[in-house]
Amino acid sequence: MARHVWFFLAFVAVAADMAAAAAAPSLTRVLLSAPTAAAPGGKCLDGTAAGYYIDGNNSDLFAIYLEGGGACYSKETCESRAKTSLGSSKGWPATHGGSGVYSGDASANPDFYNATRVYVPYCTGDVHGGQRKGPSPGTWNLWFDGHLNFLRIISDLKAKHGLGKATQVLLTGSSAGGIGTLGNADTLKDLLPNARVWAAPQAGWFYPGDCADEPTKPWSPPSYWQNWSNGKVGGPNLTLTAELWQSYIDPKCTAKEQPPQSCGSAHVYYKYIETPLLILEQMLVRARLVTVPLSQKDYSIQGNSSPGLASHARVVMGVDKRATTTHV
């Protein structure tokens, strides 16, 4: 009897959650117009229009979420990605159900349910950082303009949805979206001088530094397992992706750090970010955005990020080392 009651209560709880989700308003798709000389960007990897989803009409409070989903760095990985929703808007639905910080359900999102909520799909493979203004043979005729898309989206939100009048704005995102949050936070702050802008990157601290296997390069990411286990060094190549994507890198960082490509790592550029940050990061994670699939042994050594991340708490609004389940 008790078991039957438990199943009934569980069914009621699930049904209530489903009803709440159904009752919560969906976000509506907005596709960006074609790029111009004055407004470059606006494309997914395959050249289809990038865009965003939006709901709400609160011009005072905005919550903007950047979707995650890895990255691409070679002809094979990028061409494959361009055939999916992470590289093309062809299959994007007209509406998107809200969840988390972009949910319109007051019980699920009590702090931001009444904000203008914006969900930015990730379709460029460049962690929301690319600045290429068009395809070329060097990019396998694909587009990498994640940062340019971000600029276009913010411009569109200001022109059509009152973002320029906002007094409080939260920028957040997970994984690649967390990287994009860190990389675009000060850009957003500068574009909204009358607003208080906060950033909350989730699982976006790429890469750790101060690694034992690179004592002369404190900015360098940790080595891959196959190198480290054989007494060699060598991890993610920051120069490779920066050149392919022509990534936006904060000039405040490159003016002071050497080599300049080190500013592509959060371990280096975090201290130049002026926007208040709440960093949500697991100390032991199953992935750091690497350019080869991680083996189980790779997972086991990612804890070497812990000392570096923990030491950064002094310069940000906060570091919650257990507040995200991404990459666990």
Describe the protein's architecture and organization.
The protein is α/β, with parallel strands linked by helices and 328 residues long. 28% of the residues lie in helices and 14% in strands. It is built from ten helices and nine strands. Strands 4-1-2-5-3-6-7 form a seven-stranded mixed β-sheet, covered by helices on one side. The longest helix is centred in the N-terminal third of the chain and has 22 residues, at 2-23. Residues 1-23 and 286-318 have low confidence and may be disordered.
Helical percent range? 25-40%
Number of strands: 9
Distance separating the two termini: 37 Å
In percent terms, what proportion of residues is strand? 5-15%
Shape: globular
Query: Which stretches of 5+ consecutive residues score pLDDT under 50?
Result: 1-23, 286-318
Largest pleated sheet:
7 strands, mixed
Task: Give the strand line-up of the largest sheet.
Answer: 4-1-2-5-3-6-7
| Mean residue pLDDT | 83
Question: Treating each run of at least 4 consecutive H or I residues as one helix, how many helices?
Answer: 10
Class from helix and strand fractions: alpha/beta
Work out the radius of gyration.
20 Å
Can you write the helix and strand succession as a string? HEEEHEEHEHEHHHHEHHE
